[in-house]
Specification:
- It is a single chain.
- This protein is α+β, with helices and mostly antiparallel strands and 371 residues long.
- The chain is built from twelve helices and seven strands.
- Strands 2-1-3-7-6-5-4 form a seven-stranded mixed beta sheet, with helices on both faces.
- The chain is 54% helix and 14% strand.
Length: 371
């Protein structure tokens, strides 16, 4: 099977095969060390070049310029001082360097002379036993990618979105890695969008749960039993997800449609597949947002209806109680000459008439749905 037919299998494997230790940096930044470099390796003809000790970015680049291939450097939350030497060595544009260090950027694709700068928002679904008004449903991070002719640099921000497994999978396919940095860029884009698909699927369950609670009050709940805060919190999380997905669609379309010197033609066509998957996720997220709007409005409408029903019941009982209140008020006046005041049967007659009127009002109101 050719490299092109294997491309999808490479970025979505079942499990990577065991491999020997290459002596590379660990992918989790050690707080005890000042270095932000988590991995630095030289790839030639699709194969990682083993070295006696981990290479510095400068050593790796000198080796590439001497013997060919490309260098892939991974960094995690570097400071401006830590990134300054790498930026100078690879000739990175100051604006892109500033964005990579400061983070909190929207997904985008920018071209600077001989390099491409791409920003991806990584999204992770946070498992929870029950959705509450304070639940965190999605957690976001960032991956910035610098793509050059003979280098590829990733800058990660956030505690999730590690690229270690992806790097190992790519190393298992030398034919793919031989295509250079553009193959790595595609693999990362596909990896990020696959994460979006997984998060969208998990969010679907949360939206379905909230929808069921709002529109199925017969399961031991009243219409007012659904907390609007939970719906609003889920809507906020969906909006955060949307901010990660929607801006990335245009960059993926550019990578798939516009010829670029730094993107291998054999790899470029596969960005169309990434763009297609991303478009479908975007449609899902928009649908979630619109559905949650409808659910929130329906929940508020149900609460209003429940309040109106309560007010009708209160009004109905007030009307019933008004009858004996009026009678007691009349006979509580201190007039000496009152028609029934000294009549033997006056009290039972008046009480009977009062009860009869109250029962009549109660029956009428209940027939009309007020009670």
């Amino acid at each position: 099977m050719s490299m092109i037919r294997d491309l999808r299998a490479v970025v979505r494997p079942s499990r990577p095969a065991p491999r020997k230790d290459t002596g590379a940096y660990d992918t989790t930044r050690d707080p005890a060390t000042a270095s932000a470099v988590v991995d630095c390796a030289v790839y030639r003809d699709g194969t990682r070049i083993d070295t006696p000790k981990p290479l510095t970015p400068q050593e790796a680049m000198r080796q590439v310029r001497r013997d060919g291939g490309f260098v892939w450097i991974g960094l995690h939350e570097p400071t401006e001082a830590e990134f300054a030497g790498i930026a100078t060595e690879f000739g990175l544009h100051p604006l892109a360097v500033e964005d990579a260090v400061q983070a909190h950027q929207r997904p985008k694709l920018e071209r600077y002379d001989d390099s491409l700068f791409t920003v991806f928002k990584t999204v992770h679904y946070v498992d929870h036993d029950q959705l509450t008004a304070n639940s965190e449903v999605v957690e976001t991070g960032e991956v910035m990618c610098f793509t050059g002719r003979d280098f590829f640099i990733t800058v990660r921000h956030g505690g999730q979105g590690s690229l270690r497994a992806l790097r190992h999978r790519l190393q298992d396919d030398p034919e793919l890695l031989a295509k250079g940095p553009s193959a790595v860029l595609h693999a990362i884009a596909d990896h990020v969008v696959d994460g979006y698909i997984a998060v969208a699927s998990a969010l679907q369950d949360d939206v379905d749960e909230v929808e069921t609670e709002v529109f199925s009050p017969g399961r031991g709940r009243t219409p007012r039993g659904t907390d609007a805060g939970r719906i609003y919190q889920l809507k906020r999380e969906v909006m955060e997800f949307k901010r990660a997905v929607s801006p990335l669609l245009r960059p993926m379309q550019l990578l798939s449609e516009r010829p670029m010197r730094l993107i291998d033609p054999d790899i470029q066509k596969y960005f169309r597949d990434v763009a297609d998957h991303l478009a479908r996720v975007q449609e899902q997220v928009i649908a979630f947002d619109e559905l949650l709007n409808s659910i929130l409005q329906a929940n508020l409408a149900q609460a209003s209806v429940a309040q109106n029903e309560d007010m009708r019941k209160i009004t109905a009982w007030a009307a019933i109680i008004a009858v004996p209140t009026m009678v007691c008020g009349v006979y509580g006046m201190n007039f000496k000459y009152m028609p029934e005041l000294h009549w033997r049967y006056g009290y039972p007659v008046i009480m009977s008439i009062t009860v009869a009127i109250c029962l009549g009002i109660h029956r009428t109101l209940k027939r009309n749905g007020w009670l």
